[in-house]
Amino acid sequence: MPAAKNFFALTIYVSPEGNDYFRGIKPELDKENNGPKATLLGAVNEIALLAKAGTIKGPVNVLLRGGRYFLKKTVIFLPAHSYPIIFESYPGEEAIIDGGSRISSWKPANLNGRKIWQADVKELLEQRGRFRQLFVNNLRATPSRYPKKGFVRMEEVKIPDITDLLGGQDRFKASPDGFSATWRNPQSLDIMILNYWISTRLPVKSFNADTREVVLSMTSTFMMRDESGDGSFAKYFVENVVEELSEPGEWALDTAAGILYYVPRPGETIKQAEAFVSHVKQLLVFEGAPDSHEYIEHLSFRNLAFEHSDWGEPVNSIQSDVLVPGTISATGTRFVNFEHCRFEHLGCYAIKFGDGCFSNSVVGCTIRDIGAGGIIANGSDATGSLARRNGDNSYTDNVITQCGRVFMCACGIITQHSYGNLIAHNTISDLYYTGISCGWVWGYADSVSKENRIEYNHIFNLGQGVLSDMGGVYLLGIQPGTRVYNNLIHDIERAKYGGWGIYPDEGSSHVVIENNVVYNTSSSSFHQHYGRENLVINNIFAFGIDCGARLTIGRSRLRSGYSHPGSNFDISLRFYRNIFLSKEEPALMFYDLKSRDCDSDLNIVWSLKGADAVKVKDDKPKPAELISWSQWQSLGFDRFSLVADPGFKNIGKFDFTLKTDSPAFKLGFKSIDLSKVGPRTLIAQKYYVKKEIKRHKGQEQE
């Protein structure tokens, strides 16, 4: 048989040992300068010239030889670089796009009574500026901090007598043990404030030892009060305190002396250590011009790795750390794809698709150890430019884990003003805030967000007691056509309030929430703040510490300036054919049961304490009242629902498979197949998923 015809019209080779003056048509160096290029940009510039001259007719393959491609600055793609190109690692090798520098000048030393390593980095700081992350032997080093665990609380803050959260302060009085005058270089310290659903990182400007006043170089995002409402002030911890350096895996940078300090982990030696610090904040930037319809398109990146990007100066947001940029950042892209890539040890969001980005994809990638979150997408809002809309993108089969390591309120995946996206078959775990967030309008104003599909995702180990008011899946605003389907969500732990499984927040409307399994949440499995006409059907909600499902505000916020032809103005949401399982908590909790804000029927409710323990909570009276299930039915709800053991196969191991004789089937409940949840048949992803599940369960420690 004749040999198969090569799909590519041209193959360009790139190598860390190459030269951009070479032609790039051979993978090895030769005497005729046909050998590999040295950089990605060198390859795309060559292709752009050839395409403009008309000398290539067809797709181009750029093969990067294995090794690290250290960047001195961001690689920028322009519309002129648009051409059908696949960038990928050379077969059997891994090419790493690296935004950092290797540290190899370690020397043993003693500090704070401990044996440590130190490196003179004065020249590096002069050449490339301050770096803010250290990675040793493929692990993120932890900034030295005070206190070692937990936090301290501000003693006094001058806060205006208003209830608004926004409009913060730039100073506070520390408690006697809350800040030390002996700490060197206070201007190199960061205060990390944790309150409500955000973390705010603020550099220290000065400290007055007599008054204990800490002055900051930025203003906090929220008022520096605690979310408990008890009049206390915000909690915080301090990072990069050299005097607190003590634990294995910790590091600190003395910016004045130009000395980097690190406490080695057990078994680490200077001779064998591989250490990197981060410099370049954005590794790849795509600068399309959507207003003039000049797009960057038809580029694919496969089997590549992206490491050691920095996060630069603090960037603070009102929610989800949405102002933090992407390590890969795109404007005006179409048909740009990242497939089976590895994003690891990064400072910002891994990938951001911004204005004018549509029909792009991130598929089968591993996103791990990230300063902010995994993927963020946002375009113009309902009043903005049509050319700058964002939508029809796919984010599937990815593993997103160990995020929020710098910006703690980042999300695994967030789509803001974006429509028609597919978010499916991802595993998202180990974050301090929300897993998947969709929508960016508070209330009933017009929204671009609609027809998004959030399905077959495995989301777990969120919150971890650090922040409040988060969910496995979080929704905002009216978004008809959006469907939250067949997700497995569990183990969500709040700080003070709001560790929810599925959370339609302010104004969330016209959403179908179906076939999800949610359990072990530190608030309720389902919580709707206020919204309109959402359908919650055929879900399993188990072991919410507060209750199974909750509606906070109903009829009083239904109208609220929102009108839609054909709307039913009297219904916030409908619960049909769900299973509610509790230990002894109420099955349902509503604000003002008599207002009839919902319709609920054909459900199964059960408590491990037995039928008599099944209760409903009315949150309007103060104190709140518990009523029996029969009293709830007397109000006209759940007339055909059953109080019965649903018949799960092994609830002790959280196996929610129903036995064949389950009473739920008599009410029309359909079995939920969890076998397809998470990434599909991808070896690398399966490895990371199993590793993360073991780590979450305490079976493995790094």
Strand order of the largest sheet: 1-2-5-24-27-30-33-36-39-42-46-50-53-56
Q: How much of the polypeptide forms β-strand, as a percent range?
A: 35-45%
Which class of secondary structure composition applies to the elements?
A: mainly beta
Please give the number of β-strands.
62
Round the mean pLDDT to the nearest integer and report it.
92
Low-confidence stretches: none
Proportion in helices:
under 10%
- N-to-C CA distance: 52 Å
Question: Compute the gyration radius: what is it?
Answer: 27 Å
Task: Name the shape in a single word.
Answer: globular
Largest sheet: 14 strands, parallel
**What's the helix count?**
4
Q: How many separate domains make up the residues? A: 5
Helix/strand layout:
Elements: E1 10-14, H1 40-53, E2 60-64, E3 67-70, E4 75-77, E5 85-89, E6 95-98, E7 100-103, E8 107-111, E9 114-120, H2 122-128, E10 134-136, E11 139-140, E12 142-143, E13 145-146, E14 152-153, E15 171-173, E16 190-195, E17 198-208, E18 213-216, E19 235-239, E20 250-254, E21 259-262, E22 275-278, E23 284-287, E24 296-302, E25 304-307, E26 326-331, E27 333-339, E28 342-346, E29 349-353, E30 361-363, E31 366-370, E32 375-377, E33 394-396, E34 399-401, E35 413-415, E36 422-424, E37 427-431, E38 436-438, E39 453-455, E40 458-462, E41 470-475, E42 483-485, E43 488-492, E44 499-504, E45 508-509, E46 512-514, E47 517-521, E48 524-528, E49 531-532, E50 534-537, E51 540-544, E52 547-551, E53 573-576, E54 579-582, E55 588-590, E56 598-601, E57 604-607, E58 615-618, E59 625-628, H3 629-634, E60 642-643, E61 648-650, E62 655-658, H4 683-696
Parallel strand pairs: 1-2, 2-5, 3-6, 4-23, 5-24, 6-25, 12-20, 23-26, 24-27, 25-28, 26-29, 27-30, 28-31, 29-32, 30-33, 31-34, 32-35, 33-36, 34-37, 35-38, 36-39, 37-40, 38-41, 39-42, 40-43, 41-44, 42-46, 43-47, 45-49, 46-50, 47-51, 48-52, 50-53, 51-54, 52-55, 53-56, 54-57, 55-58, 57-60
Antiparallel strand pairs: 7-22, 8-9, 9-21, 10-11, 10-22, 13-19, 14-19, 15-18, 16-17, 16-19, 17-18, 20-21, 58-59, 61-62
